[in-house]
Amino acid sequence: MEEIKASMAGSVWKITVSQGESVEEDQDIVILESMKMEIPIGAEEAGTVKEIKVAEGDFVNEGDVIAIIE
Amino acid sequence: MSYVETLQERIEGIEKGGQEKYHRKNEEKGKLFVRKRLELLFDDGMNIEDAFFANCLDDALPSDGVVTGIGKINGQSVCVMANDSTVKAGSWGKRTVEKIIRIQETAEKLEIPMLYLVDSAGARITDQIEMFPGRRGAGRIFHNQIKLSGRVPQVCLLFGPSAAGGAYIPAFCDIVIMVDGNASMYLGSPRMAEKVIGEKVSLEEMGGANMHCSVSGCGDVLVKTEEAAITYIQKYLSYFPANFREKPQTVDPKEIKSIEKTITELIPENQNAAFNMHDLIKKLIDEDSFCEVKKKFAPELITGLARLNGKSVGIIANQPRMKGGVLFPDSADKAAKFIQLCDAFNIPLLFLVDVPGFMIGTKVERAGIIRHGAKMLAAMSEATVPKISVIVRKAYGAGLYAMAGPAFEPDCCLALPMAQIAVMGPEAAVNAVYANKIAELPEEERPAFIKKMQDEYKDDIDIYRLASEMVIDAVVEPEKLRNELVRRFSIYEAKNITFTERKHGVYPV
Predict the structure, then answer these.
(1) Half-sphere exposure of B142 (CA within 13 A, CB side)
(2) Cys staple from B339: which of A13, B178, B379, B480, with CB 3.0 to 4.6 Å?
(3) Could A38 and B360 be called an inter-chain contact, meaning their C-beta atoms sit closer than 8 Å?
(4) CATH assignment of B3-237?
(5) Contact B428/A36, CB-based, under 8 Å?
(6) Residue A9 is part of a domain; what is its CATH number?
């Protein structure tokens, strides 16, 4: 199980996967918006998206868990 | 027995190191014997070994637990000290410390690199009066390291623990390679932490290789095996001269093959979209020549050694793929040390700029981002090696300054045609200047107004306007950037300046 965490503070701009979807290593899970930049947050290893813990528009802090990959 | 036979017997005994059971224990952990490590490290073995007989009257302490001597790497002689963890866990006795001090003094006299192969439990408490507090006690090792710093390259290969005071050996090296699972650095062990402050924590979590290479920044390169650590350092040293007086060697240039896309295709037009800066680096440098430093630490800024037409160059590049390429306290800290490293050994600097600025918010202010950012500016400003900054896409705010912007005397500041230089990006600027006005407008009129203002702003910071004002020295066609850099660096090689005269600056640390 791998927790996907926000690498920096920002708001959730786009969620690019859905629950139950299988993802590859480095595949984008969500894209944050921070400092006027798109910040892609990718999976560190391949697996299945077990849970997405945020919704588009949410504010997240650095280190907050965004999704769980199994 | 003849004299010669006695000598032979003693040599054989000492060469074996500690007891068989400790050799087996090391083997189980994937650790090589100290003499095997040195055999792999050097071109043709140790050329000179001194104080081999240190403490030879005590059978339990062959060479007093450390091997010191000189061998060649890439044809260049280097000094080495290497702990033998089969001898009292590589702990430091009186003679161990004296041997390390002497090989450092040799490195200073010969002005050749100094390598530390560390695998040691720390001080040998039974020897403490002789090895700890005095003039030639362990403190002298660190004093010598500080003195050697910037005179000769100093590198640390961390194969095992580096505990308590011993942890300052890696701290004072230019670079620290750590073997995952075996290498560790800590002032107090987990056992001590539990006893003294009541914290329950594992060694890996508190001072493991992965933690140090990704969180604390005390480690620079994480490798899986000792062989990989040795291969890395052989490559790393090939970019460096033997000392600060010399220039790095030139090797045969290698053509680029690995990426088919053109630079224009690699870089998204939308300033806010991410792309992988490593792809651009590959398009500029000689094939397979990148030697990344601190890959896992603050990855929003890439630092690494490379070759441009066969010549060493240090690259500092924003990575839009990670944290938007924004500068954080850790990225500034990482850049400051890397710039100092290259400047000390006459390695020119290339800044690849695509930076939205320094991070803002409570978290980074509390972490002292201003202080850390200032450290990066100071190191960059003071570097007297040839330095070129290339505005790849955007250079906003103090990000422009930190990345060797025009005011910091780069030999030139080049821009690609899509570059933007400004105090802040169009979205942020329009928001900052017209926030009240936008709020007053009826909602349906806002988007058109914002777009108009943003377009005006973009015209105002147009790259040709900046070229016309001579803020930048040239606008370069992306596909010709490599040639432009090769040509300019080869001309700037003649640069020979002193930053300023004084004892030393007083910078934030």
Answers:
(1) 14
(2) B379
(3) no
(4) 3.90.226.10
(5) yes
(6) 2.40.50.100
